[in-house]
Amino acid sequence: MKKKIKHAFTALLICTSLISCTRTLSVLGIGGNVPGTIIPTSEFRGVWLRPPSDTDQIPVMLERIEKAGFNAVFLETMYHGFVIYPGSNFPQRPEYRGKDVLRIFLHEAHKRQIAVHCWTEVFYWQVDTEKYPKLPHSRILDENPSWRLLTAKGETSDVSENAHIFADPSNPSVQAFLLEFYRDLVTRYNIDGVNLDYIRYSAGEIDTGYTAFARKAFERQTGVDPVTIDREKKPDLWMKWVKWREDQVSGFVGRASCLIEEIKPDIMISAAIFSGYYNSRGNHPIYQDWASWIEREYIDVIIPMAYGPNPESIRKEINEVAGYSKGKAFLFPALAISITKEDSYGGAGHPPMDVQVQLVRSMGLKGHSVFCYGWILKNRLGFNAFREVYGGTGEGEKGS
Question: Pick from 318, 298, 297, 299: which is nearest to 307 by CA?
Fold first, then answer.
């Protein structure tokens, strides 16, 4: 597979409807090193984490991660419409002002030969701070109200996906803002990867995508305002509207991939996805056509969130992706560690980590990741859960 260096592409590429941009599996360094980056050459073992409020704890966190046997972190870098470092077009999180948390993590992680992949929540730009008053309120969508993702009734996406307020994936200004964010990130920082999360429309029962821009754009193409489509009476027209929204997300993935490839071709691009999307295509409102990203070679790694309650369900989630990924992208599933006390995000109903890791290995996969650092600390064994499967010391705090 040859990598096409896309010198002809500009940073924005907003007008391009079909992106021609391929990457190569060799950027991962599986079986060989890539100069200038820290990329595992055997099994990829990542852990997802949010930076601590006390940055003095960063070396402590990475020490635990290293001793447990992990060799990569997915560092939450852009979330809730904020970033963890200064100088971006997204505002810096208020708790980190005066500090460059990304640079601290890179320094401490690279000392330990741990790769840093910037976990970015692409279209999820604002949290409902009335429901979660302890979280900061990003004002980007307040200052640009036409960028908000809307339902057919004109409501924001939090009515569908609780407290999650999305930007409109179809809006060229939203895409341009994001591309500038990624251009700055990969230019200024020696990161090892970029992860695309929330690379979709909002989830939930209520359909979204009905902004003024999207409605006019779709109507120009079809002569129909999508608000008027009855999916039961006009299923073919409904699927055109589904495909149109899928294409908005996929087009952005292609543009971001081209941009990153042009600046730093050795950076690994991954995407976190819902593996079962195609089982209910047309009725699943996330409009995440991830198979096309693999086919067009926009990404290096596909990461299904395989958070099933038993090995059989985890295997099924992985297999739903495996048929698409062969030869064009690595498949590194994200696995969930159980916690001692169930909450709204995590639960106790996940298999032991040694069972999950051995399952992934038995399927011939070259890597995986674990969600997440905070849950590991809430697990009965803590980091000792990885002692045998990773061969590390397993030292660190246990759950309670």
Answer: 318
